[in-house]
Structures are given as C-alpha cells and as structure tokens.
Amino acid sequence: MKQPKLWWFLSTPQLLLDEQLSLQSQEQQQQPQVLCSSEGQRGPYVVQANAAAHAAGIRLGMPAVSASTLVPELRQRDYDAKREAAVLHRLAQWLYQDIAHIALYPPQGLLLEVQHLQLLYGGYQGVQQQLQRRLRRLAVNVVLAAGYNPLVARILAQSGCSLLSAEREQLQAALARVSIASSLLPAQQQQQLQDAGIVQLGDLLRLPVSELGARFGRAMISYVAQLRGELCPPQQYFEPPAKFRERLDLLTEVASWQQLLFPLRRLLQQLEAFLQSRQLSVTAFVLLAHHRKETPTRVRIAFALPLWRSRDMQQLVQLQLERQRLTTPALELSLHADEFSERQASTSNWFPNKQDVHYRQQEERQLQRLFGKLQARLGEAAVQQAQALTDWRPEAAQSWQAGAEPALSAKPEVTLPRPVWLLSEVEPITIQDWQLHWGPERIQSGWWDGHPVDRDYFIAIDSEQRQGWIFKSQGAWYLHGWFS
Asked: Locate the UmuC domain: which residues (predicted)?
C-alpha cells in the first residue's frame, strides 16, 4: 500500500525583524524594537515586535503612535515586504542542503515535503533532528507543524500550533480546534461562516459536502477537500539560482571594512549553503559596500585554492580586507559569486607514503593554503613563484610570476645536474683556483633574440672545497652558481 505524503510547514512570524536582530549586538537586541507597516488607509501600525517590546506591553496591530507613547525608547523601522521575501529565499536556500522539495509561501512560510527523507535520515525522528540542527544555526523564531496535506500543515503552523505528529488522528484533532479566524479563508467567507454559527474548523468539517456547496460555493468544497486530505494541489518547488547574489541591510551606517566582518559572516554562511547544495567550490567573489548616494565600493576577493567552507573563506577575506579602506560609510553589504569549480573527491591509504598520489595531492593542498594566506596578507602581486621556461640558457630558464598555483610534482625539463643557487650575475674566476670534477656540458643557444651564448659548463671544487658551477666562454672562465 502506498504511504501518503507528509508535509511540514515552517512559519516565521517575524522573519524580517529576526534577520535585523541577528546583525545587532546582545545589548541592542534587548532594546524594544518593532517593524511598522502603513498598508491601507490606516496609519502606521505594528506588524512585528521583539520579546522586549512584547514585555513592555506592545501588541501586534497597535498604532505606531500608541506604541511610541507607551514605550518612549522604542526603536521603530519600516516593514519592507520585498526585503522579507529575500530573507525567506535565503532561508529556503539554507534548508535546501537537507531538503530538496521546498515550496515558498511568501512572505513568511516554507512548505517542506519530508516523506522520502525518512529513508535518508533514519526515520521520522531523524528528519526532525536534522532540521532542528540546521535551524539552530539561524536566529529565527519558527513554528513548525506537520500535516497530511499542505493546507493542513500551513493552517496549524500559522495558527501557532507546533505539532509534528505523523498520526493523522492527532493532526485532525488539532485542526478541528483551530478558529475560523485562523483558517486562511478570505475575510468575506470567514464572516459568512461565523454568521452561520461556525466558529471552528471542526464545525465546518462536520457539514455534508452537498450543504457546503449550496451555502458557500464550489471554492468551499475544494477547501474542505484539502482539509480532509482528499485533494492536494500541485506545488511549485524552489530551485536555487545558478549564481549567488545576496544582500544585507546593515540598519546603521558602517565606516570600515573591519566593522563589516560580522554581517559578512552571515553572507559567507549563505554562500557555503549554496556551494554545499551543488557540491561546488568558489575561487573568487565580489563584495559590494552600498552607500547612501555614491556608487557601491567593489572589492574582489580571490583564493589561491578553491574553497567552500565559510570558516576557511572568512579567515582569508579578513586578511584581504585589512588592506582595504572604506572611504564612505556603508548602509548595505552584498556578495556576488559566479566563479565556481567542481569539487574533486579524494581518498588516501591508511598508511600513506611519498609515492602515493593522494599523499602528494594533500601536500599540494597544504602548500596552496599557505600560498593563499600569503596572498591575502601581502597582495596577489607580492607573492611570486618560479615558473620553468623552455630555454637552455640557465639565466633564462625560469621567470617569476604572481598568482600562479604552486605545484610540487612539476617535472623539470633538464635532467642534467643544476645548482640550487644561481648567481644573478656571473663572476669572473681564475681557473687555477678550481679543480674540475665533471663536464663539459656545451650550451649554444639564444641566437634568435640577440643574446647568444656559447659556453662549456663544468662542476668544479674551489680552494675552500665548495662545489660550484663554472663555464668557459671565449677563452675566459666564470662562476654561475653554487651547489648545496
């Protein structure tokens, strides 16, 4: 027998305010704060309030003037539905790491299809524990309710009934106690039901279908069919965007990049969720500090090694921002990323050796991490490494380049002995002070660029028993380098 689907609805009654509170210090969060809306013909009224405001006697729907009179130190800000919808979108992207089927119900709700997750997380309790672990990392007040139908889960959650039972009978009993005012029906239909003496959903569910259609129309029949689990409209599931674009309101003007590190942590966590859901890493992104009037300040952050964990990115970002100045205070901060690379899975032996491929790859990654930290601290141009060139002239066989990825396993083109220390300028020597041990190696090259060489190289020992690399050219002898 096919098992019916199970849905959870996650209601966030003060999502925008919670987002703003999370960017404040503990002391600021304890101050009474509200968000006010001016929709309709009435004046501004309270739509969201924190715990301190509720404790001071402020209630939702209260006129803003009355609220400020009751609590003179009250901090008021305007409610912005578009901003809250953006926060809801970020929340969906965060949960997408664990749950693939998520439907957005703006401005404050998410519908989660969790039936098939029980196999992944070891049963119904395992799904709950995984979701709770994910939500604990976010400072968001949520009401989470289950339902055998999306509408049932939504009604229970938005009415404040936090019930995660998988038993249909318990969910139906809780649904029957919900008042018509919390039924999500249009106001006109709510009034019609209340005029008929129907004050709870249980009263509505006891009416015959024929009577419902005759008295309240076909829309009511569809509504009740959903409450009974007989009808389930199709859902439009959330699909994460291909590029990462997130923006945070800083609430107050910020004068330096160092002060932006705390809100930046939130953006990096969102970026980690984005990357984790796609198994990608990021090699660079752009930070934008938005000002009141001036064009945004752009800072490009690049990594020598592809990263995906927020803690790894934050350390390198902080090092790079230490070299930046913010000439104009910022009101908002955004992060744009579209330079991604696929993650490469790696395994290693329990007892690695230096010939093991994975051992060498691990060494390369460690060197790349060091390279990235030095770049972040000193700048990309300040950290360079030697790159081999296909030129037989020793002084032209390499060049110094910035921003290249270091490689431990690069195979040299020349297999003949070469000194570790090559002098920047050759030094004339007296051959009687040297004893030849190996050679000659003739190098004739460079005729194509106007710097030809015609040399016979030898490995020799000087009077102090030092091993040098010398050569003879046009009858004269020169020292070109030292062996270790």
From this structure: 30-157
Question: What are the start-end ranges of the E strands in 183-329?
Answer: 244-254, 280-290, 297-307
The closest of 140, 131, 151 to 108, measured between CA atoms, is 140
Specify the long-range contacts of residues 289-292, CB closer than 8 Å, at least 24 apart.
Answer: 289/254, 289/257, 289/260, 289/326, 289/330, 289/332, 289/333, 290/247, 290/330, 290/331, 290/332, 290/333, 290/334, 291/328, 291/329, 291/330, 291/331, 292/253, 292/328, 292/329, 292/331
CA–CA separation, 144 and 141 (whole Å): 10
| Cα–Cα distances in angstroms (integers) from residue 52 to residues 32, 80, 332, 339, 461, in the given order | 5, 21, 26, 43, 83
106: tokens are 């703006």
Contact assessment for residue 313 and residue 303, using Cβ atoms and an 8 Å cutoff: yes
* DSSP label of 198: -
Number of H-type helices and E-type strands within the chain: 16, 18
- CA end-to-end span of the chain: 78
Task: Look over the chain and give the mean of its residue pLDDT values, rounded to a whole number.
Answer: 86
For residues 223 and 232, the answer to whether their CB atoms sit within 8 Å is no
302: left (phi over 0), alpha (psi -120 to 50) or beta: beta
For residues 176 and 227, give the distance between their C-alpha atoms in angstroms, rounded to a whole number.
10
What are the Cα distances from residue 246, in Å, to 110, 136, 238, 269, 341?
Answer: 19, 21, 16, 11, 20
Q: Residue 480 in contact with residue 394, Cβ under 8 Å?
A: yes
Q: What's the residue count for the chain?
A: 484
Q: Largest Cα–Cα distance in the chain?
A: 120
The residue with tokens 């995984």 is 130
Q: What sign has the CA pseudo-torsion 348, 353, 357, 358? A: positive
CA–CA gap between residue 45 and residue 37 (Å, rounded): 6
Determine the average pLDDT of the residues in 384-401: 73
Name, in order, each residue with C-beta under 8 angstroms of 46's C-beta and a sequence gap of 6 or more. 34, 35, 36, 53, 58, 59, 60, 61, 62, 63, 64, 67
Indicate where the chain has its CATH 3.30.1490.100 domain(s): 244-342
49-100 residue pLDDT tens: 999 999 999 999 999 999 999 999 999 999 999 999 999 999 999 899 889 8
* Band (410; pLDDT cuts 50, 70, 90): very low
What is the rounded distance in angstroms from the CA atom of residue 332 to the CA atom of residue 321?
Answer: 17
244-342: CATH superfamily? DNA polymerase, Y-family, little finger domain (3.30.1490.100)
Residue 416: partners with Cβ closer than 8 Å, 6 or more residues away: 441
Q: What is the 3-state secondary structure (H, E, C) of 299-337?
A: EEEEEEEEECCHHHHHHHHHHHHCCCCCCCCEEEEEEEE
User: CB within 8 A of 149, min separation 6: which ones?
Assistant: 7, 226, 227, 229, 231, 232
Which pLDDT score, from 0 to 100, does residue 5 have?
82
